[in-house]
Design a protein that fits this description.
Elements (H helix, E strand, L loop, with lengths): L2 H22 L6 H13 L2 E2 L8 E2 L5 E8 L21 E7 L5 E8 H7 L4 H4 L5 H7 L1 E5 L4
Parallel strand pairs: 3-4
Antiparallel strand pairs: 1-2, 2-3, 4-5, 5-6
Length: about 150
Amino acid sequence: MTLYAVDKLMSEARRIAAEYRRTTGKSLGISAEIARHDACRLLRLEASDEGGGFDARDPAGRKIQIKGRAIFEESKSAPRIGQLKLEQDWDDVVLVLMDGEFQTTAIYRAPREVVMEALDDGKRSKRGAMSVARFRKIAERVWTREPE
């Protein structure tokens, strides 16, 4: 399958996911795959199917764990990133933030050392759970969508 075909499929997947949420009020559960696709395309990462706790490698060979979160305007809660695989082999975490149409708005990146330091002794932290707001504070924004 060509890159063009994959990009077209992802575009359609975004449209369907957004329409599904508008219709049912529920998420379709596709944000992780969209995040992985966008992070690889926008940051020039190479997707990996090796497993072992990382999703891609950067040009320097660093192992990247990719997380994605769609932020919906009507959301009143503090969104969290997906559970981090703390015991696995990875070097950095990339967080892809998307709007209600599942379009990427910003990408943040933090090295493992910074992420581990930010996780305190709480129960959630031991499970590798962190809020989007906390991750944004410790990470560097590495990509942002141009203003329209």
